[in-house]
Amino acid sequence: MIPFDQRTGKIWYDGRLVDWPDATLHVLSHGLHYASSVFEGIRVYGGRPFMLRQHIARLRSSARVLDFDLEHDDEALHTATLDVVTEAGLTDGYIRMNAWRGSEVIQTAALKTSVHTSVAAWELPEGYYAAADALDKGIRLTTGRYRRPGPEGAPVKSKAAGNYMIGTVSKNEALRAGYDDALLLDDRGDFVEATGAHLFFTKDGALFTPTTRCTIDGITRACVMAIARREGIACTVGDLAPPFAGEADGAFVCGTACEILPVARIDEHHYDLAGNEVIRRVVHGYRELVAGRGDVQVPDTWA
Length: 303
Fold this sequence. Notes:
The protein is of the alpha+beta class. The chain has two domains: about 5-120, D-amino Acid Aminotransferase, Chain A, domain 1 (2-Layer Sandwich), CATH 3.30.470.10; about 135-290, Alpha-Beta Barrel (D-amino Acid Aminotransferase, Chain A, domain 2). The protein has helices at about 30-35, 50-65, 75-90, 135, 165-175, 220-230, 245, 275-290; strands at about 10-15, 15-20, 35-45, 50, 95-100, 115-120, 140-145, 180-185, 190-195, 200-205, 205-210, 235-240, 250-255, 260-265, 270.
């Protein structure tokens, strides 16, 4: 993979398209030193950014949680994203939208800092999140050693860069141990999510998923739940302690980057993917949704 600072093309940066190498920030930016940065990842299918308005709304909400406002309105960000996708000639790919505080001050207080925004897009290489055969074979998860903080301990409802440090460390350790990703517990010891994807279990033809008490409200998660409603698949949202992994008959993770990925193993628990009809229906429903087909209604909860 070409390093991201060595690519060519255009990035939308603070209101205009600039050459890829020129989309830089100062090393003393507040966003770098104090994690005053929020982001969104958006998939492109058939040249169309999927759930773009919902992602923009969540970016704005994330910024407010971190006590700053975006400098550009939703329509400007919507147009910017379409321009970047067109400029890149993308049919299928990935968009990364960022907003961060500038370099006016280097201290924890940041009331007088500027706010910057960028939108970049590129093709996703095969195996970006997991091996190319992961949809058939499933991925392997292990419980990470760090826990997600509770809502009283961190701005968990912001898709903030700082909230992903735990995920980076945990996934690195999982990969070194021969797994594909880590599962994170919350401050109470219950399941939350993988390092960059929400978690679902299947049991007796129904879905079970942790609450989002300690994490963002996932857009792909909302799509899965909408597909389940259409398909008549019961979906229970609640506190799921680690022993539930042994009671379930299947599991999958979902997110913008990984889409829907079945899980073959969680720690010592193994799942038979071949006969899991619930996961098959969810995968099929999601493929229909991203292709613009079907009548699934996804609630717009990020406005």
